[in-house]
Amino acid sequence: MTNNPYWIFKNDELEKSTxxxxxxxxxxxxxxxxxxxxxxxxxxxxEASSNKDEQxxxxxxxxxxxxxxxxxxxxxxxxKYILPKLLNYNxxxxxxxxxxxxxxxxxxxxxxxxxxxxxxxxxxxxSPEDFLYxxxxxxxxxxISPNSNFLEDILKIENVRGIIEQGxxxxxFETLKNILYIVSQKDFHHDIICFKKILKLxxxxxxxxxxxxxxxxxxxxxxxYKIINDIFNLQISEDQWKDFESKVQVICFFDSARSANPTPxxxxxxxxxxxxxxxxxxxxxxxxxxxxEDSCIYRFDYGAEWGDDVSKRFLKSAKWIKEILN
Length: 326
Fold this sequence. Notes:
Layout: H1 5-23, H2 28-47, H3 52-73, H4 79-93, H5 104-120, H6 128-139, H7 150-161, H8 169-184, H9 193-199, H10 207-214, H11 223-232, H12 240-254, H13 264-276, H14 279-290, E1 297-299, E2 305-307, H15 309-325
Antiparallel strand pairs: 1-2
Helix pairs in contact: 1-2, 1-6, 2-3, 2-4, 3-5, 4-5, 5-7, 6-8, 11-15, 12-13, 14-15
């Protein structure tokens, strides 16, 4: 029984949930009612077959019981506790830790229905401290599934409510460190969309966070993040904030080379970048990126090879810029 992945997940998750519920001041009765629904969810996932009709029936049953839970069994305050749990379960349901069969209708219930509604519900309020506790709860995972929208939903919760801007620099730093930790744990980085969203949250007063980003690395040592790390450790400006702003501008611009040749949109962005960054500094970035020519292919430990599209875009931009400036 101890090797049963469902029991492992349930016990690990319950331990984390207990801490989160305490930090969010969730009542014991609400905690028990909510846990009862999630226990049912996990059981239904474990018992599910590939039969679509059976899955649809299970989906309807779970949705009915969820609506009963939030409409009459718990206080509205406890919704802020349910939402991160939904994200956590959805993430694990999208990887192979529990089982190899993807239970499509349960996935749709969580990702396309319940999570989507609650993420957008502005009546679910998080203080900056609440959101920090949420990120602590969400940071440790067996696997970050690219199909669960896990990171995207975490950032949407923040974006819809503007949570981080309401807190202290210290709370913001710890919160974003937790989210960056999740970014760093991904087995493969198909894009850097969420990372760029995090960069947009940084302000001139976030001195500690800016320093932290200069040392940020990902666990799989993928080429695109090596390039980003190299860029962050250049000096474009002596002014720390202008230096950081320029690097964010460069990272976003270099990631925009999505066609075989420069597009009008890319050319417009190039004009903006070249107007704000000195030619020699921009060429320094170009040469730094071009030194990572071998980063376009990522090799997994088990032998598979995947193309690193982000690295490819950075290298294309670097080559185009070099042709223009030289």
